[in-house]
């Protein structure tokens, strides 16, 4: 009987020092820059959607109808949409860090000023200006991350970035509810006014810190060794050579327009839910602003886990199509099922949680796609155009929900409409060529 040890399986030819060095370098980048960007995006999202919590007091205080509120919540996206492409091209030209810092300070000031609105026209103006000032932040953040990560690493990074959205609801709901309850009638101001002021301050402070926290590029990062910076730069340069880099060429690509259509459809559902979820929960029989805010946090807390499990599994298997489309199908079913129990808070919350978890899982997968085909000015303009579709969705979603509720008296019909749009987006995702959505090793 031979005592010789069995031969160990040989590592693939490409496995060795370079992949290990690359993994180390990218892990260091993730630790250093991603948490700060997520924190900034958290307050961007919170300052955008906290009007949904303010509605619980603000609507009665200012005498706003459902349609006026829905239009005011949505007009944010007119400013956001109109400024997307020009802002993104200017950001690409003049530098992402400086522009991101200025954007944060400006949106913080506008968000704080929302506390002073007293009429529908002033409400519209404040929301529109908030959209204008926030317009460049998300495209700038995506472009900035594209300068640090190749396409095959972006889905996981986007899932981390998009944690800011569910966290904005998980933490933002209870924080907003607690602020409104604790500060109501403080120094003669309503709780919703204090909420806008207090929640705007972190954006201003983070904007002042941004230039110190985020380096311009791998070459200027003091915490990367020269070898690590060279590894990242070489990886990105090799990948970018295969992408569209001219904006005019990107405009002729059918995939850009398909991505815009998908983004429009599922974000109508996303923003319809974001701005009306407290009201949907209230319609099941809840009345306390704090209790409603706490319940609003539950679906997004579960979504934090679901979206990261989905992204991790997609990265491990290299499969993108089903990991993007199936969660959206689940979201559509969950939204539909929630309408079957309009007066049962527990069951409605269960299905809303399923729906929102599916929707958020698709979000992180979706935003890894543009970086697979676009670079340079094509990425700047293309990402801005896709995000403009999301902005248009943000205008349509709240107004659609408000119009359906006011004309029919039923919020459930609005939720059903959102479910149908999510289903259509899932079908379009499945129509994208498979090779585009697979990892490229």
UniProtKB/TrEMBL annotation:
Q: Name one GO molecular function term.
A: transmembrane transporter activity
Record has Membrane as a keyword: yes
Pfam families annotated for this entry? Answer: MFS_1
Primary site of residence: membrane
- Tell whether Membrane is among the UniProt keywords: yes
Q: Looking at the record's lineage, which domain of life comes first?
A: Bacteria
Subcellular location(s) per record: Membrane
Q: Where is the Major facilitator superfamily (MFS) profile domain?
A: 33-437
Q: Which GO terms describe its cellular component?
A: membrane
Its record classes its membrane topology as: Multi-pass membrane protein
Q: InterPro entries this protein is in?
A: MFS, MFS_dom, MFS_trans_sf
Q: Which keywords annotate this record?
A: Membrane, Transmembrane, Transmembrane helix, Transport
Give me the segments passing through the membrane. Answer: 67-92, 99-118, 124-145, 157-180, 192-211, 255-277, 292-310, 322-341, 347-369, 381-404, 410-432
Q: What is this protein called?
A: Sugar phosphate permease
Which species is this record about? Cupriavidus phytorum
């Amino acid at each position: 009987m031979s005592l010789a040890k069995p031969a160990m399986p040989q590592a693939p030819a490409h496995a060795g020092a370079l992949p290990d060095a690359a993994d180390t370098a990218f892990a260091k980048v993730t630790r250093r820059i991603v948490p700060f960007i997520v924190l900034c995006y958290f307050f961007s999202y919170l300052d955008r959607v906290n009007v949904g919590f303010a509605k619980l007091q603000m609507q009665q205080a200012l005498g706003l109808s459902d349609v006026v509120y829905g239009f005011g919540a949505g007009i944010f996206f007119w400013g956001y949409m109109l400024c997307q492409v020009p802002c993104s091209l200017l950001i690409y030209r003049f530098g992402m860090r400086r522009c991101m810092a200025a954007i944060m300070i400006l949106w913080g000031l506008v968000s704080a000023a929302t506390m002073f609105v007293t009429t529908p026209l002033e409400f519209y103006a404040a929301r529109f200006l908030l959209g204008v000032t926030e317009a460049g932040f998300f495209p700038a953040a995506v472009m900035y991350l594209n300068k640090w990560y190749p396409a095959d690493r972006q889905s996981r990074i986007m899932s981390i970035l998009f944690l800011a959205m569910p966290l904005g609801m998980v933490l933002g709901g209870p924080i907003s509810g607690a602020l409104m309850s604790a500060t109501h009638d403080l120094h003669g101001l309503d709780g919703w006014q204090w909420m806008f002021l207090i929640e705007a301050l972190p954006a201003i402070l983070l904007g002042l810190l941004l230039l110190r926290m985020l380096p311009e590029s791998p070459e200027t990062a003091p915490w990367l060794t020269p070898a690590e910076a060279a590894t990242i730069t070489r990886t990105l340069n090799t990948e970018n050579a295969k992408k569209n880099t001219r904006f005019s060429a990107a405009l002729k690509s059918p995939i850009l327009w398909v991505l815009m259509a998908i983004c429009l459809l599922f974000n109508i559902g996303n923003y319809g839910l974001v701005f009306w979820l407290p009201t949907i929960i209230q319609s099941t029989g809840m009345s306390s602003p704090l209790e409603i805010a706490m319940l609003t946090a539950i679906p997004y807390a579960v979504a934090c886990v679901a979206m990261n499990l989905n992204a991790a599994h997609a990265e491990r298997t290299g499969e993108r199509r089903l990991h993007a489309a199936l969660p959206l199908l689940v979201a559509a079913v969950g939204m539909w099922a929630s309408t079957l129990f309009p007066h049962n808070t527990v069951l409605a919350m269960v299905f809303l949680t399923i729906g929102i978890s599916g929707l958020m899982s698709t979000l992180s997968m979706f935003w890894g796609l543009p970086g697979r085909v676009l670079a340079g000015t094509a990425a700047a303009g293309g990402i801005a155009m896709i995000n403009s579709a999301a902005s248009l969705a943000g205008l349509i979603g709240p107004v659609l929900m408000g119009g359906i509720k006011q004309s029919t008296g039923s919020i459930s019909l609005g939720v059903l409409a959102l479910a149908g749009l999510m289903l259509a987006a899932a079908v379009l995702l499945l129509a994208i060529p498979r090779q585009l959505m697979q990892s490229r090793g």
